[in-house]
Amino acid sequence: MAKIIVRGGKRLHGEVTIGGAKNSTVALIPAAILADTPVKFDTVPQILDVKNLQLILKAMNVDSSFENGNLDIDPTHITESDLPSGAIKSLRASYYFMGALLGRFSRATVTFPGGDNLGKRPIDQHIKGFEALGAKVTESDDIIHIDATEHGLIGARIALDTVSVGATINIILAAVRAKGQTIIENAAREPEIIDIVTFLNNMGANIRGAGTDTIRISGVPSLKASNTHTVIPDRIEAGTYMSMAAAFGNGVAIKNVIPEHLESYTSKLIEMGVNLDIGEDVIYVYRSDTLNSVNIKTMPYPGFATDLQQPITPLLLMANGESLITDTIYPKRVKHIAELRRMGGDIASDKPGKIKISHSPRLIGTDVEAAEIRAGAALVIAAIMAEGVTVINDADHILRGYDRIQKKLTGLGADISIEGIDLINLMP
């Protein structure tokens, strides 16, 4: 397992360019197998999740090449085959191959997906959508079998019981080549869904309503790529660097952002007293010495993103008074708490989904564990703020989701190194 070693106490300054959105990329790659032609992406983040998705593609005889943020995928010789369970279990978003394979072959067999341990994250809404389209879904020995070969996929009206990004995308992938019209009600509205739909529509799909709670999909017989698709900027990565800059920066420009995607987040920073200069595609974060406590509740987009709950936590340690976070999306997203307490943070969770953070002006470097991506990001921020050396173990989780984090933080003046992983092959 990789280790990230941070020698803290060095304030960040300069500029950093945000990469493509991880949460878009991990759906765009499975979506590419729906095409009858080669597919090209650019601004793809150089993260471990992309490498694992390439392993899954290879198992299906789908060639791919990835260099300098450019990802080429050729699904023209795709075959149905057993997918590598190790890669499937390493990331939750591998479940998008369910919808993509179902849309391509009218059937799919996939090992139950893994990823971050954030508590129960059922796929019942995904299955509800597949069954509404005419598929039969069974499970045996941790393997999910989805089959619609008898009659094919037929468009349907699907009302999701809860707002789910994963279910919304998976149903779109399955329905895009189905017969007739599919209507998804109570659909998720995240920017990443708009990105996926833009990619599919540019290949000839007929999808309307992305970004609203009702999405209409008229099935088409085939999809053909003609242009390179540029992945939207990663709003979670941007928010993470904004938290770093506000907590321990001397002025940081965060480039390649879409400010509209971050409004719920930036409004909380402003409420805390963080001074921001928000431009068209850049946000400048000034040094912040006096901060106010705030209350935060995570909500589906356009509310405060659960993925930014942990990255903002180290910044809240700098605020006067007591802040309260209520995570309504993943109440068990608390694996950063014990580690921050080891570093001297006054932070606790006495009820599921409730996190109390009190002013903690002095953090001390120590050995900590990154239990998942965003918890790891919180520890990186705390390590930069802390006195002495922090060793973040299980850092593979962080590398799954953060594009070239060592290079970017070094460019901002941090003293950071990574051990135990081949960065050359990870970031070609």
From TrEMBL:
What Gene3D superfamilies does UniProt report for this protein, alphabetically?
Enolpyruvate transferase domain (3.65.10.10)
This entry's Gene Ontology molecular function terms read: UDP-N-acetylglucosamine 1-carboxyvinyltransferase activity
Name the positions where phosphoenolpyruvate binds: K22, N23
EC numbers for this chain = 2.5.1.7
First-level EC class: transferase
One annotated Gene Ontology cellular component of this protein: cytoplasm
Q: Which reaction does it catalyse?
A: phosphoenolpyruvate + UDP-N-acetyl-alpha-D-glucosamine = UDP-N-acetyl-3-O-(1-carboxyvinyl)-alpha-D-glucosamine + phosphate
Principal localization reads cytoplasm
UniProt keywords, alphabetically: Cell cycle, Cell division, Cell shape, Cell wall biogenesis/degradation, Cytoplasm, Peptidoglycan synthesis, Transferase
**Where can this protein be found?**
Cytoplasm
InterPro entries according to UniProt: Enolpyruvate_Tfrase_dom, Enolpyruvate_Tfrase_sf, MurA_subfamily, RNA3'P_cycl/enolpyr_Trfase_a/b, UDP_GlcNAc_COvinyl_MurA
Boundaries of every Enolpyruvate transferase domain copy: 6-409
User: Hey, which pathway is this one from?
Assistant: Cell wall biogenesis; peptidoglycan biosynthesis
The entry's active site is D116 (proton donor)
Q: Where does UDP-N-acetyl-alpha-D-glucosamine bind?
A: R92, R121, P122, I123, D124, Q125, D307, I329
Record-stated family: Belongs to the EPSP synthase family. MurA subfamily.
Q: Could you tell me which NCBIfam families the record lists for this protein?
A: murA (TIGR01072), PRK09369.1 (NF006873), PRK12830.1 (NF009470)
Q: What does this protein do?
A: Cell wall formation. Adds enolpyruvyl to UDP-N-acetylglucosamine.
- What is this protein's record name? UDP-N-acetylglucosamine 1-carboxyvinyltransferase
Annotated source species: Leuconostoc carnosum (strain JB16)
Please name the gene that encodes this protein.
murA
